[in-house]
Amino acid sequence: MSSEETTSGPATTAAKSAATANKWIREINKVLSSKEYKEFTEQGDKIVKIYKNSSSYSSGREKTPARVRYNILWANVQVMKSTLYARMPNVVVERRHKDMDPVARLASQICERATGFMISTQQDSYNYANKSAVEDRLLPGRGMVWLRYDADFESVQNPDTEEAEDIEDGDLEIEQIVKPNSEKVNVDYVPWRDYLESPSRTPYEVRWKARRSFLSKLKLKSRFGEEIAECCEASRSEAADSMSNDESKNYGTQAEVWEIWDKETRKVYFVCLEYTDACLDIVDDPLRLDDFFPCPYPLLATTTTDSQWPTADFNIYGGLAEELDYVTKRLSSIVECVRLVGATASMFHNDIKNMLQLSDGQLWPIENWTSFVERSGLKGAIDWLPFDQCIAAIPVLQGYQALLLSQIREVDGVPDFARGVTDPNETAKAQQLKSNWISTKVAEKQADVQRFVRETISKMAEIIFEEGLFSDETIYLMAGVQQMSPEDQAMAPQALQLLRSDRLRTFRVDIETDSTIAAEDDLNKGAWAEYFEVINQLMGSVQNVSQFRPELMAPMLEAAKAAVRTLRSGRAVEGAFDMAIQKIEDNDKAAAENPQPPQPDPATIQAQAYAQDIQAKNELKQLEMQNHAMEMQASQQVDMQKLQFQAQELQQKVTEAQMRYDVDMRKLELEGQKVMNKKEMDQLMTQLDQFKAQFTAEAEKQRVEIEQYRVAMSAREELIEEARL
User: Is the pTM of this model over 0.70?
Assistant: First the structure.
């Protein structure tokens, strides 16, 4: 390569980069300086000030803020925000063609679970983004959110083992890989001032969309490098001059960076309006979405087919709202004039002042009574300020105020009963007609919010299942595949492959009707009640058909499966229902291939049944006899144990008596040796011999009784054994 080519290459690249940056700076500045954008921002700022009841706002008829105001804009927006978006939506993923396809059924379930998990993990920020977008739709007239793929990366060194010299020199290849389970799709709120798009008549003509971010030097350095951060450090936000002092402190010192998504080149350009040397960065289609843009079609107020710049709702009835506020201020001023004040003669001032402080029945002495009577008493001494004309004007202004409110209600579509205020004299039919009327006017706005949320969720699902972004393990964890049935776990790789290759063309991402505005409990109960009612009817029909016309079983089962697929609540058990029906069909097929042998003669069946009955009765009787014998044997064993215990107890008593006898004899012998003569000793020995004989006879009698009882128990045991045999 020549030296000229070497020097001209970088210069040409720098010139192209500068040209690209200047092109997009011109595009952004063209929109920012356009008449439509200026009118849109001016009207938006005015409406936001009115909504916040800013003291700097006046209706135009007076330059000073009033003490009492009627902020009808705030009242309308507070009602409409909860009417349009009240809670997080329920994600629904369905097959476009409701055929029997287990893999597609599982794929829709995985997609629904993974997307719902991603929303639930950022529930607070997700709801904040949607609610803020709805509020921007109701105030300036345009609301927007932005999807952003985020993941934590780590550096991995992969040395080239074939080239040992590179390893020794430290030349290693650095690869950035995603940390496990760190992938996520964030939904960011975009303020209404920070979103721009190419001028177009319809949303399908939009070439590029852009969002503005304010980045500090540290964030600039982290995102674009130190060199870019140094170049952009001096750049300030164009909107800093129009911001308040507090806002200027927060945002004025930060760099204003525009992120531009160009659909024609399918590239993302990052530019700073005051840095014209080059683009901050250029990225090739990072998300690979079907329509390229990472944001849904914005929530817009009133638009026509010739422009995408919206007209805020307040601009439609703003004149009536200003007139209502003006009438309210006049009423406040007139009521301020209605006061009980008057004038009195100076000579009687102290007397009348003291009289006004008296209690009931008290009197006050007047020194100059003659002059007081000549002046006709109190009538001549005091005169109250008249305010009859003020009181007469109040009902007129109140009637005009009510007329203005009714006119505003006809325009904004939010009647009093939507705020919980109804006329008790109205009939139920009249209130139903009003409810239908408000539903008709609000339904379009609700449908637009649901469309906005649905597009956001659909793009989130596309990002999750885009090849190269989320890993399979992360998707399995988000969808809870480990808790599914073994059959579904086996099909999970096929279902995930279908989602990655098909890119949701076979599926339809939706949200449950009214899930963003209505309570869920009653809806869920009604859905399951409907499901069980349909299933009961189908099962009854299938049972009747199977008994009378078995050949109609196949179409009836197919009709039952089709009915289950159409029910939202039946999707959770669709797989089990398919398996059960398939098992029924397999059993019927096996029964047809292996028919049962012919039934025997009824008389034979009856005789066999009678013989079986007799045999069963004999077996039952034998079993009862065995149980009785076992009970008798157990009773005999208990009696024997009792007898043995009594014999042991008697033997112990005999032994103790013998021991006491020996001890007493020994004591008598010793005593006899001391004090007794021979005659007395003989008498004592005779008595002892009689006692010993009596004791021996009694012991022998008890031994004979025990032996007789033992012989009786042995005979009883032999009888029981004979009865058992």
Answer: no
